Amino acid sequence: MARISPFAALRYNETLTRDAGKLCCPPYDIIPIDRQPILEAENPCNIIRLERPLGEDCYCRAGALLRAWREEGILDRDDAPAYYVYRMSFADGLVSRAVYGFFARVGLEPFEKGVILPHEETLSKDKSDRYALMSETFCNISPIYGLYEDPEGFPNDTLLSAMAADPDTSFTDGDGVTHSLWVVSEPGALSALTRALADTRIIIADGHHRYETALAFFADQKQKNADLPPDSPLGTVLMFLADMRHPDLVVWPTHRLVRGLPGFSADALAASLAEGFWQTTCPADAVAVSARLAETPHTVGFYAGGDRVTLFTLKDSGDVRRRLPGKSEAYCALEVTMLHTCILEPHLGIDKKKLAAQDHLIYTRDFAEACDKVRSGEFQCAFLLPPTPVPMIGRVAGHGERMPQKATYFYPKLTTGLVIHPIDE
């Protein structure tokens, strides 16, 4: 099953980490381009200069900068292997939550082995970008978010004991999320965590592109070097591992914005869906729409302007299964599956090829942003989705299936910059 081990991370030196909030950044793929110069200006050593380099020869420059930071002592390699316990504390409305787990080195496994499982489709552009960066740095700069199936007798006390002490690093970001890190290098604790997860499977919650890139990169390295040992660090990847049944895991929906469809008409779409969907309306308000989606299965919201959202509710839930005879019941029960299978493709012509090309859809987790972009005329309409429950994600992944891309948004996002994982040492 999963091959999990401690590792000696690259981390910012102790002096710099006193101001860790100005060194770390969100994952590269959710940072608005206009925020990049702001992050760079916060500190000349902000990790974004490695995580998302810009401009000509940007990946070569990122590799050179990483080497320079190591030579100058800006980044230091820990003396001994460790697991890095990590906690994100945040407010979810009026509820205080805290998700915790640990960073580990995880052996790469092809998906078909069923040891590490994806849960959604990916886009090729991000994978080519991450491959170029890995080729120059030979590091995992940002972690993959993995969920393990809680094994019986998992020594959660090891994590709780670590978090009882003062963290080695802690800061609160601009969204109010407090990120805290503890370095655990005591042999008994390392052994306990390694043994506990030896028989588990891991489901990728976030970071599919990075995992698939790591697989491709390792395959290419083996082709270049036939003598590469099977336990080479090149065959591993940096992951944050959390319990799939953790009560504070939060998944937000990812809404779809539609643009560029010739001859699009909201009235014509509603008419074409009348046979298969009940149609009701509610105020174009995030709370109202979320409540209606939560209480009415097989329903998506549709917004094309004005002060009302139309709710499309599938009349016959078996319609999805008939269209997708090879898919599991869990996959067919997803609202995002229904949207893509029963609306986007047959009625708007947005098929898998167009999804991959990203010609007509963009994604946002922000209800207000979705509505504002439609009102402005930038987009023709928005489809509003409910969040996907974590157990459902596990069931779909367990069947070896993948949801459409951008089906989930785990919140908070892991910060980048607390630990870097060298794969060539």
Folded structure, characterized:
Strands 1, 4, 5, 6, 8, 9, 10, 11 and 12 form a 9-stranded mixed beta sheet that branches. The protein has helices spanning 36-42, 48-51, 58-71, 124-137, 156-163, 187-196, 208-224, 266-273, 286-295, 318-323, 329-332, 335-348, 352-357, 367-375, 390-398, and strands at 4-5, 10-12, 75-77, 83-92, 95-107, 116-117, 139-140, 144-148, 169-172, 178-184, 202-206, 236-243, 250-252, 255-258, 277-283, 299-303, 308-314, 361-364, 381-384, 409-411, 421-422. The two termini are 24 Å apart. The chain is built from 15 helices and 21 strands. It is of the alpha+beta class and 425 residues long. Helix 3 (58-71) packs parallel to helix 4 (124-137) and helix 4 crosses helix 7. The radius of gyration is 22 Å and the shape is globular.
Tags for this entry?
425 residues, alpha+beta, 6-stranded antiparallel sheet, globular
Radius of gyration: 22 Å
| Proportion of beta-strand residues | 15-25%
Please state the average pLDDT score. 93
The assembly state of the depicted protein chains is: single chain
Give the overall shape.
Answer: globular
What level of helicity do the residues show?
25-40%
Task: Indicate the structural class.
Answer: alpha+beta
Segments where pLDDT lies below 50 for 5+ residues? none
Query: What's the tally of helices?
Result: 15
Number of strands: 21
Biggest β-sheet, characterized?
A: 9 strands, mixed
Q: How far apart are the termini? A: 24 Å
